[in-house]
Sequence to fold (157 residues):
Amino acid sequence: MLNAQVVGRQIVEESFPELRKTKIVYVNRQRIGNCFMDVERTSPGSFLLRVSKESRRLPESAFIGCVAHELSHVLIEKRIPYLFQDLFDNFYESFEDEFERFVDRIAVSRGYGSNLISLYSESYSPQSLSPEEITNLTTRKVKNMEFKCVLFGCIPK
Ligand SMILES: [Zn+2]
Fold:
């Protein structure tokens, strides 16, 4: 059975080196709203990554895509001073769709485009990047693109 913690540690090791020292606690939940997984910052340097029981029915590639998406959330939130967390949460609520697509772009830039395509073939939401958008980003070689600035300037174009 797929274990989010094992998968997550491997993804961090291979593709999110900035998160090697970030504390991420993985917890299993019966249900998480209408999501497979979600993530919450619990202190300046630690995050709680909730994994729903339903995510276990995902094929491996989609499951990996889901964890990579959540780790992309962590990468962004970690860069926001904890003092501004409430502000960020409000911002997130107002721009959820745009933000989720931004998070997807990060996961694609780290090499998880094909995983996102399998994830969204299981459960597509209008918030997500479409398979065509993901393929476009991937073929434009954003895979190894490094972030050039702290926050939103780092959207791969
Ligand atoms: Zn998300």
Observations:
- The chain has one domain: 4-154.
